[in-house]
Design brief:
The structure is a single chain. By secondary structure, the protein is α+β, with helices and mostly antiparallel strands. Helix content is 36%, strand content 23%. The chain contains 16 helices and 18 strands. A hairpin with a 2-residue loop joins strand 8 and strand 9. Helix 2 packs parallel to helix 7, helix 13 packs across helix 15 and helix 15 packs antiparallel against helix 16. It starts with a helix and ends in a 7-residue tail after the last helix. The structure holds flavin-adenine dinucleotide (FAD). The site of flavin-adenine dinucleotide has 39 residues, from helix 2, strand 8 and strand 16.
């Protein structure tokens, strides 16, 4: 993945088969699908890959127990199948995780177990493990810091967990390997039309300021919560198709809730589920579901949402947490498809919608990270039919993603490097060839200078934020530490990208300003 090479491709290509707008899960899924079908594919992302919602999820590859309760069996079944495929195709970034649902009355565990057996049954051969009833002692053995008072037992079930923005990087790499051309920091600013039909896009390189007119047979709008903005550019449409809802997550130290198992709180006071999940050696708590009007790239948490998460976690934990224990707060916007007159976003369907608009634009909304692949398959099928291109079968169902490594192969790299999959050995080789690259970017964390260089050279990282937010997840794990690591990351990048001291200083300042928004005192 080389940005200069992709820029040259734009200049050299007269007409693309597919132009995809948006480099989140949906857009990258489409780029991989179209590229692997042999279609000449270009993807343009205004900021960095996964800058939007796709780096801000709860990190679950799941069917969604909650959707089962809502009776959306079709969505749950599709998601469970996709869960199974993803765990096979990208075992270095996705793995099985056990969840405990605690019960406080004797009948509760049977009630939950019944639903969860059904959930497991729907996954068929792709089941990740047997749902089990737990006694009080067994529940506490798995989660020793759970409040024991009145606990009667629980149910253990299995789902998937992943690193969302690392998977995005791997999707981008795989799409490139399959022949697609991808660019971050190039935003679409308008459309080229003939007789009302889209023939291409106008785009601007956010790094150099260069503008482009790019021609394509079909354009896909995969811009998540920003889809209506693009829709307006394409159709002059004022109608909203998205009902955004924000979800807040808090990250705290793992010692507050030890164990390798996640807690699933089945019913919060507003009738939702809430998770406490081990993630990269920290504990991830969330999420909320608050309808919002304002769509921004850096949504802010509301104090009520933070209080809500802390309050519910404390009900289930023997050691209570407060504001000062929160290492990072991050917020994502759900691109929920607007349906009918439903106002409560928590009960809005998570299904995806793919529409061909009068201008020929393929408009994709809704969906979940877990179902990105099937959503892309449907979108590309529809786009091929709409553009009258030669029909070809989708190839992504069993396609191994970049970094794939056999999960039972004993990796001889430090465990945290295993997230890079097969690339881990190459990073380690770099370290062996120059020992100074083993130096850490922060004394409290294992991340090395070698990774930063790797990300600039192979993962299209352009800014300090690209490194510390989405390739190494330090901003999401510990915002203060990320701010402390910023100057050293900026210095390594400046050398690698041949930038001046002023660039280095500006990058550090920009990142620290952004990271302050992930600290709780910035409310
Ligand atoms: C709080 C929360 C928790 C979630 N948890 C889970 C979970 O655990 N599991 C799960 O399966 N799903 C989860 N989801 C859902 C999942 O994260 C989303 O469905 C998915 O990430 C949406 O991806 P996307 O590509 O459609 O949107 P995005 O990731 O937002 O990508 C859209 C991209 O388009 C770009 N863009 C915008 N305008 C332009 C333009 N003019 N030109 C070029 N690019 C542009 C943006 O910069 C952005 O990067 C969660 C969602 C939220 C909000």
């Amino acid at each position: 993945m080389q940005r200069d090479h992709s820029l040259q491709q734009i200049k050299d290509t007269l007409q693309w088969d597919f132009i995809i707008i948006g480099g989140g899960a949906t857009g990258l899924g489409c780029a991989l699908d179209a590229g692997s079908r042999g279609l000449k594919t270009l993807l343009l992302e205004k900021y960095d890959f996964a800058k939007g919602t796709s780096s801000r999820s709860t990190k679950l590859v799941h069917g969604g127990v909650r959707y089962l309760e809502q009776g959306n069996i079709r969505l749950v079944r599709e998601a469970l199948f996709e869960r199974g495929r993803l765990l096979k195709n990208a075992p270095h970034v996705c793995h099985t995780l056990a969840f405990v649902v605690p019960s406080y009355k004797w009948w509760q565990k049977w009630y939950y177990a019944f639903g969860l057996w059904w959930y497991e049954f729907l996954s068929g051969k792709l089941s990740l493990g047997k749902t089990q009833l737990l006694s009080k002692n067994e529940a506490l053995q798995n989660l020793p810091d759970m409040a024991a008072e009145k606990l009667s037992g629980g149910v253990m079930y299995f789902d998937g967990q992943f690193d969302d923005s690392r998977l995005t990087v791997n999707l981008a790499q795989t799409a490139t390997e399959q022949g697609a051309t991808l660019l971050n920091y190039v935003g679409v600013t308008g459309f080229i039309k003939e007789d009302g039909i889209i023939k291409g896009v106008k785009a601007t390189d956010g790094i150099s300021g260069t503008t482009f007119e790019i021609f394509g047979k079909i354009v896909i709008n995969a811009t998540g919560v920003f889809a209506d903005e693009v829709l307006q550019m394409a159709e002059g449409n004022k109608e909203q198709t998205i009902s955004p809802s924000q979800g807040v997550h808090l990250v705290v130290d793992k010692h507050f809730f030890r164990g390798d198992v996640a807690l699933m709180i089945p019913k919060t006071e507003d009738g939702r589920v809430l998770f406490a999940i081990p993630w990269h050696d920290k504990l991830l708590l969330g999420t909320t579901d608050t309808p919002v009007e304002n769509i921004t790239t850096e949504p802010k948490p509301l104090k009520d949402e933070i209080d809500f998460i802390i309050h519910h976690f404390n009900l289930y934990a023997s050691t209570k947490i407060g504001y000062s224990d929160v290492l990072s707060v991050y917020v994502g916007l759900r691109p929920l498809a607007k349906t009918g007159t439903e106002k409560k976003t928590a009960v809005m369907p998570r299904d995806h919608h793919i529409v061909v608009l009068p201008s020929g634009l393929i408009h994709v909304t809704g969906g979940k990270w877990t179902t990105y692949r099937s959503m892309a398959e449907h979108a590309v099928d529809k786009a091929i039919a709409s553009a009258g291109l030669k029909k070809q079968a989708c190839k992504t169902q069993h396609m191994q993603l970049h970094g794939w490594i056999e999960s039972n192969v004993e990796s001889n790299v430090e465990s945290y490097l295993s997230i890079y999959g097969s690339d881990a050995a190459l990073i380690k080789k770099q370290i062996e060839s120059e020992v100074s690259l083993a130096e850490k970017i922060h004394p409290k964390y294992p991340y090395t200078k070698a990774e930063v260089i790797w990300m600039v050279q192979h993962e299209m990282a352009i800014t300090v934020e690209d490194i510390l937010a989405r390739r190494i997840r330090l901003l999401f794990l510990d915002a203060k530490a990320a701010m402390e690591a910023a100057p050293i990351v900026a210095a390594i990048m400046a050398t690698e990208l041949k930038k001046e001291a002023a660039w280095e200083k500006q990058q550090t300042e920009d990142f620290q300003k952004l990271a302050a928004g992930y600290l709780i005192y910035d409310l």
